[in-house]
Amino acid sequence: MLNHSIKRCYGPECEDVVCTGRYWWLFLASSLVTLAVGTGLVFLVRFITRLPCLNRRRHHVAGPDGSGCCAGICPINLLEKNAEAEIHSIEAAKDWATRLLSAQSRFGRILLITYFCISMASYAIYVIDTGKPIERCLPADRGDLLFFIDNIFNFFFLGVFIFRFISWNDKFWFWFSVNTLVDIFTIPPTFVSLIISRTWLGLRCLRIMILMQLPEILQLLRVLRTSNGIKLTSLLTIVAGAWLTSAGIYHLVENSGDPWINFNNSQSLTYGQCIYITVVTMSTVGYGDLTPKTTCGTIFIIFFILGVLAIFASALPEIVEIVGKGNKYSGVYEPVKGKKHIVVCGHITYDSVSNFLKDFLHIDRDVVNVNIVLLDTTDPDLELQALFRRHFTKMRYFQGSVFNPSDLQRVKLNESDACLILCNKYSPRPDTEDSGQIMRVISIKNFNPEMRVIVQLIQDHSKTHLLNIPSWNQAYGDDVICIAALKLGFIAQTCLAPGFSTMMANLFAMRSSSETQSVVKNASSPAETYLSPEGWMSHYLHGCGNEIYTESLSRAFDGMTAPEMVKECFIKLKLLLIAVQQNNEFDETEIIINPGPYITINQGTVGFFLAPDATEAKRAYYYCRACHSEGVEVEKIWKCECKECESLDNNHAKKYTHKDGHKLLAMTRLGDHHEPAPARSPSAELAELKIQGVNLSESSDHDRPAYDFTGLFHWTPARTVEDALITSAQKRRYLVNHIIVCLFGDESSPLIGLRNFVMPLRASNFKYEDLRTIVFLGNIKYIEREWDKIMNFPKVFIYNGSPLSRADMCNVNVHQSAMCVILSANLGDSVEQGLQDKETILSSLNLKSIMAAGAHSRRSKIIAAYAAESPTRLNGGSIKRSLSTQGTPKITVPMITELVNDVNVQFLDDDDEDDPDTELYLTQPFACGTAFAVSVLDSLMSATYFNAHSLTLIRTMITGGTNADLEEILAEGGELPPGVQISRTRLKELLRDRCTVAQLSIGTGVFQQFKEGAAYGSLFLHALESGILCLGIYRNLIIAGKSSSKRYVITNPPQDFDILAGDRIFCLKHFEDLNMNKEIPETALIGSDL
């Protein structure tokens, strides 16, 4: 090796003794000594300050004689007067340094960003220096610009190091923090270089560790705002820092060689090659083209694989997940021109979304030109992803929160047609679920007060919180679907007309005729008997194909009375009109169910029809007397060339736009029919609140009915639980033709809202003597929690017991009851689906067992009676043979069981042929009206979106009628206010003109003249003349030629459908009371004790 002159001297290539020496140990020792001295000083200071004489808390002032606990031990007195001032100065300096380094202040943010930039610049200088020898001398006659700049950076790092040391609380652990270690191995070697005029590449690669602070820097600059972005940046910087730092260390040891063999085994590697080696090693590939040749390099690779590989293996899946998720479910929704879109959020699962889509995108809805945008915080599971792929042209999924305005902006909520919020109907904590739903409404209304919101709630009392939202307004189409209120309302109406819940559930669920026909085609051979054209399932499926549609009425109906139009539609259009929507004299929109002859059809009237699809319902809109004469087939009734139809088309197009003028519907009077007469507002009647009720009869004071302040419900003074409790056998003896409600809750169970069950059964359009007694059978602790909501309704009693006890069921005279209702507990303590309805299924089977036992008991009594009368005949066996040939006398009590899980319906009947995979509406218990599940209410969300008045119609038919004033009073809690002075006209409006659901038998009453084999069409028209609107038939179930006590529902049968002698007719009839025709004072008051 040549001996260069001082001008050409460049590191170890010079043979000068001073230049060719190796001083790497001196640079490394400077760092290690700094670390050792720093930690040693911390230990020394802690040791000295913990001496007894220097501990302020243990020091005692010496006495006059110089004695004391520490007297004479320590020559330094730390209890001088300026001791507290010194401590205060130290704390002030610490606070000052903390504020300088804190990102909370502007200077701190600038310092942090500057520190990051200078660290990266220092790392860049290091990368340049890797192309030079590891250790080299610095000639005095010419300077090194990069070395000079790097020294300036290190002096800056030294100042920051001092500030961090002052601000750090635990001085010991300060020396082992990442930033401190980086400074220790980069700053002291700088001073060594200045002293000996030599530089060593060393561990300057550690400066790249500043990358771990990049997420914090980007947050300060507001570049990163999402949690996924912050997490992704953190993972990437950790992996990159580990790569680059390891590459620098590997570059050092391989280019230096092993010191114990005088560095003779070194190899020349660039920094880029070292990065390549670490990447290949970290990925566990190891091509073998570049391998370590030094022992130090080999040892480093071993620890590198053990340490950094673990970091890489744990970080890479998360990086891939975040990157992949961001590509699929992030981004911004781009509205399609000419198409509306809705935002669906809340409880997003495969079941909830699939049930919603099944009804929303049904083919019977004609053309659904609406895209669906789902917004949820969770990752969709595999089932949900498969559902997205099946409906990718209609649906998009975005991951985000409804509480984040930026996420609402991403899904273009401002441009959407509506926002639908789904709830978890099976939540074991319904109040918590409803609270979350209401908070979502608040967030959406805060983002856009005029956005139309349709929300599902579980509890009825939760919807009162929606009234507190200032922007909640039905004028924008806002509506709430209360699961508990609708569910219990359906079940309550079933107590009056068994099977009615099945009929209504099938009407608002979308099912096409092709779907019902496919059931017949795909049926297995054992089912052929009841799926034949004359089988019960075929009749039932025909009714399942009907839905409720809303359509504007043709001008051809103008001037007709409502019954005339119903008849015209039934005969000529094959449509069943059940209600009309008109504006009253107060310009308020009202829905009139089964309208009477005083209702005249005029322009703008909208009809509610039962029809198989929307196309058939449009016949009512396109019907023209001039073009569609009696000879025209009903299938050919379509848009004609009349000018009137063309002009009407424009009005029809404007009819169903939700946001034109931001007014969808006016204030609706639910179920009230009005004659043209002045009426007081409910608020005025409430102001005149004086006494308990309204008298409609001239019976004794004891039997006079009383009503609440709205006149919509029967009322009685508040009773205590003790007054309503049935304890003695004497009271139980009078329980006949009553309704038994089985409850399974306890003092800790969530409330189900029993008031929603009682109110439809206590509507004022029932005569008081027709009210059936209601007996709640269950834990009295549970019923007490809801008693204040039902204590003002008459004929409501409690029996403390268990529905699973046969003795308790017999004690409430279940054999003589009119209906037994078994409500689900839904305690949420069962993970397995089959166990979710264990209480209701066991109670249902218990009731059937009681009926069978009661039948055998009755048989024994008959035999005993005959034996007492004629022992010889009994011994001859004639009575036994007679009873055996006639079969066991059957005692049947109508019942309906609520289920949480649909598949559990298979356990209710052991004599049906239902498959576990059969849909609920196709099972025998549901077709017979003996089973009900909340899943049938899923279709109400889409039905409400397409027609806001459909929910009002259903709510009116099943709840007995209500209004905003009543809901506000009920929301405040306490007693239900009694009635007031009400005019005679108002009485007729509230009572006579309100419809009730009824079930009439063939051969009696209005249908007395009809016999078996008569056509349903003639029966319908005859009933219409009496103001009764027929909806369907409840027929005995016939399987394999044998009749049973079960019945099934036939909705809106054809006109030529033959009726049977045992049929019962579902119908809507008006209130009838002979006393209403008598002379009544203009105002009638009551103050009765019921």
From TrEMBL:
A GO CC annotation recorded here is: monoatomic ion channel complex
For this UniProt record, give its keywords in alphabetical order, as a comma-separated list: Calcium, Cell membrane, Ion channel, Ion transport, Magnesium, Membrane, Metal-binding, Potassium, Potassium channel, Potassium transport, Transmembrane, Transmembrane helix, Transport, Voltage-gated channel
Q: What is the lineage of its organism?
A: Eukaryota, Metazoa, Echinodermata, Eleutherozoa, Asterozoa
Which Gene Ontology molecular function entries are recorded, alphabetically? large conductance calcium-activated potassium channel activity; metal ion binding
Give the membrane topology, semicolon-separated if more than one.
Multi-pass membrane protein
Q: RCK N-terminal domain: which residues?
A: 339-481, 736-895
Q: Which residues cross the membrane?
A: 23-48, 107-126, 146-166, 173-195, 201-221, 233-253, 268-287, 299-316
Q: Where in the cell is it found?
A: Cell membrane
InterPro entries membership: Ion_trans_dom, K_chnl_BK_asu, K_chnl_Slo-like, NAD(P)-bd_dom_sf, RCK_N, Slowpoke-like_C
Which gene name belongs to this protein? LOC110991010
Name the species this protein comes from.
Answer: Acanthaster planci
Q: What Pfam families does its record include?
A: BK_channel_a, Ion_trans, Slo-like_RCK, Slowpoke_C
This one is known as BK channel
